[in-house]
Amino acid sequence: MLYFDHNATSPMHSETRKAWLDASTDYWLNPASPYRQAAAVQVRLESARSRVADILGCCNNQVVFNSGATEGNNTVLSFFNQACPARQKILVSPLEHPSVIESARLHLGKKMELLIIGHDGVVDLVAFGARLASGDIFAVSLMAANNETGILQPWAAVRDACTSVGVFYHCDAVQWLGKLSADGLGDCDFVTGCAHKFGGPMGCGFLKVSSGLENFSFMAGGIQEMGHRPGTENFPAVSAMLAALDVCKFADQGPRDVFERCIIKKIPGTVIIGHDVARLWNTSMLLLPEFLNTRWVNRLSRRECLVSTGSACATAKEGPSHVLAAMDISPEDASRAVRVSGSSFHEESDWLALADAFVTVFKEMSAEKKASPIGGSAIIEV
Ligand code: PLP
After folding, report:
1. What is the mean pLDDT of residues 336-362?
2. Residue ranges lining ligand 1, Cβ < 6 Å
3. Which site among 133, 177, 253, 377 is 20 to 30 Å from 52 CA-CA?
4. What is the average pLDDT value for the chain, to the nearest integer?
5. Is 193 helix (H, G, I), strand (E, B) or coil?
6. Which long-range contacts (C-beta less than 8 Å, at least 24 apart) are formed by 364-368?
7. Which one of 77, 152, 194 would you pick to mutate in the ligand 1 pocket, going by the greatest count of ligand atoms within 8 A of its CB?
8. For the whole model, what pTM was predicted?
9. Cβ distance 234 to 10 under 8 Å?
10. Is the CB of residue 132 less than 8 Å from the CB of residue 89?
11. What DSSP assignment string belongs to 54-67?
């Protein structure tokens, strides 16, 4: 199988599975239990916390383990809502994952205002600077790297601008972590991350919280995680998450670009979304010249090539991608968008084999279209 949907989820490596199994075998006690044996789990949990803090560049007590980024994002947006004074606004980018956008709609209502995005899928820094200068902004939420297009945002510049005027900055770094260096993320007030996007287990992640928010909690319950996040800590999952970070390799642009060149040459009319701006090295969002993206994904999966139409959270939902819509890409064009997301373990030969599969499927569907009296437009695939 050629698995090219790593932005949806990434499999665990043997080292990661071993870390999970070892912790489940030897350190399965409840870390909060009152006996000496449980303290050994607590000690290991704290050492994991300090390693995450080192990676991000923040203090240990600012790292909260949780169930993943959906929880982390909801926690932050709920805090913004509680803390934001009346008449102040929270700027949210329209490119965010649904766990930010929908959470902002739920928690913030009229306090939410959308950031301005250029056609290139990058936040407009000039417009942002002008809006920030008006003085009524309480917080900003802008992701580091987009899950659909791989386009990188100038989050460090936005962080610095926010810090200079005392505005909270939240960065959803889910797709950045494990692929690019985490340097500087610890200086953001809030950072969300989840393990399964970089080869860790599902249902485990972390939130970096701003200092001085000792009393803030999204949920009511026990006093775990310095009171920020009640619920028994999942040490085996945390242990596996750290092992996954250890195996992450920061690749260069190589094989993905070879794949794109090959597709552009062999499937004329294909456009690469974000080709002229900085993108994650593993992601390629193709606007194919013909055929619905669901047909492409279906045909490719029959050949054991797994790619996606966009965010896994949105595939069941009707309608085109909100990310492409924010970039002014028409719904008609967006219906031909296919996302390919590889890993650093893919060789150039894997990318080329995937390109071959695209070309074969293109020829197959084009031949069917020619042979069909109605041009194949009514073909519905299951
Ligand atoms: N943020 C981004 C950018 C994502 O890509 C995802 C998952 O696709 C999430 C948040 C939510 O992560 P999870 O579903 O693991 O909670």
Report:
1. 97
2. 68-70, 97, 99, 143, 147, 172, 174-175, 194, 196, 313
3. 253
4. 94
5. strand
6. 364/299, 365/290, 365/291, 365/295, 365/299, 366/290
7. 194
8. 0.95
9. no
10. no
11. HHHTS-GGGEEEES
